[in-house]
């Protein structure tokens, strides 16, 4: 562990500091939006949005390599496709013309397929595993700036519309009778989830995105059912597991995303077991 802290202050390895900063900052958004996802039971929607983002990542890699469009980075590509997927899901929820599970499954599969095809036709060797399972050590200063901007947008919007979100969570029909445009806040919430997923992809990758978005809030929910307390605990827990995951993976030379999720899972089991024995 001493080696990890030495690396943090080493000017020759700034990517370690970037990774730590990204993990801490992103944990704020993870805790807030993750609580919404767990309470509203939207994990399946979050999973679909995260996996379709591979389409944007593959497109950005192809454009930068073949077309020379370097400014369209993988994180920007993932952002665009995730927002489009969120809008499609939102439209389906509002109109109700199609089965939601069918639409979610379709964009999930199609988005990933498009991404893998673009990666395949892009010249040179591209390892999709770093995007599927994450590599926080690949974060650059530009990615860090994007994460900060997205983080601010997510926090600001969540605070502004917190009461409206609570209304659609716990009594959507009553909110409708009081004139609350619940469909509008459903769209805003799904778009916030899309933005948060972009932050998650840089930390743990596409495949594991659901875990870090749901496990910390689930742990927080064991100790409190109040939304604000759940959010606060979720943020703290997420910071704890991301920092610990980064330190342990650096020491053992293991994949950071996998280690982070494993630590989250162990913490959840310990919390659940501890709560069970206390209540006996």
- CATH fold call: ABC transporter involved in vitamin B12 uptake, BtuC
Uncertain residue ranges:
none
Q: CATH homologous superfamily name?
A: ABC transporter involved in vitamin B12 uptake, BtuC
Q: Kindly provide the radius of gyration, computed on alpha-carbon positions and rounded to a whole number of angstroms.
A: 19 Å
Strand and helix order:
HHHHHHHHHHHHH
Average pLDDT metric: 82
* Helix segment tally: 13
The total beta strand count reads 0
Which CATH-level-2 architecture?
Orthogonal Bundle
Structural class: mainly alpha
Number of domains: 1
Q: Can you identify the CATH class?
A: Mainly Alpha
Itemize the secondary structure elements and their pairings:
Elements: H1 2-8, H2 14-40, H3 43-67, H4 74-95, H5 100-121, H6 129-132, H7 141-160, H8 162-170, H9 172-177, H10 182-204, H11 209-223, H12 227-252, H13 256-279
Helix pairs in contact: 2-7, 2-10, 2-11, 2-12, 3-4, 3-5, 3-10, 3-11, 4-5, 4-10, 7-10, 8-10, 11-12, 11-13, 12-13
Structural description of this entry:
By secondary structure, this protein is an all-alpha fold. It has a single domain, classed as ABC transporter involved in vitamin B12 uptake, BtuC (Orthogonal Bundle), CATH 1.10.3470.10. The protein has 13 helices and no strands. It is globular and about 60 Å long. It starts with a helix and ends with a helix.
